């Protein structure tokens, strides 16, 4: 083994077709390292993964497999030490239909929609609340709640 690579404990593998670019792994990893990071530029999200897991990173690396909602990360034994230290996956983001801000990857949104219970899916119309960014979703909820109060009060006065 190469002297520089002595501390390598495992290799981090990501199923590129399965990864939805959801940020769960990049939120966990900064606890010990900046090598798994996320950046957003306009309508594009990039997740940068470390290829090599050092011995000191073993605990958190094990957690990555658990935190990934689609099981796209595996920590595998090093057979051949890879030449690259890191690799990136780039995702197109969808824009909120209200404020036009990009807020989630298309794959991430499809995943969440697929997890919604059937009765909620049936009730939603396009653009539904799920297509809104978190800020607009909160405003839509507040507006809906206010409308309900007004309707209820005007009904009570009649
Ligand atoms: S947690 Fe899994 S799906 Fe989400 S960005 Fe990381 S590897 Fe991709």
Give the strand order, joined by hyphens, for the main sheet. Answer: 2-3-6-7
Number of separate domains: 2
By CATH, the topology of the largest domain is: Alpha-Beta Plaits
Shape: elongated
What is the C-level CATH assignment of the largest domain? Alpha Beta
Kindly describe this structure.
- The chain is an alpha+beta fold and 158 residues long.
- It folds into 2 domains: 3-93, Alpha-Beta Plaits (2-Layer Sandwich); 96-157, no CATH class.
- The protein contains 5 helices and 7 strands, in the order E-H-E-E-E-H-E-E-E-H-H-H.
- A 4-stranded antiparallel sheet has the order 2-3-6-7. Strands 4-1-5 form a 3-stranded antiparallel sheet, covered by helices on one side.
- It is elongated.
- The chain starts with 7 loop residues before the first strand and ends with a helix.
- 15% of the residues are buried.
- The mean pLDDT is 84.
- It binds iron/sulfur cluster (SF4).
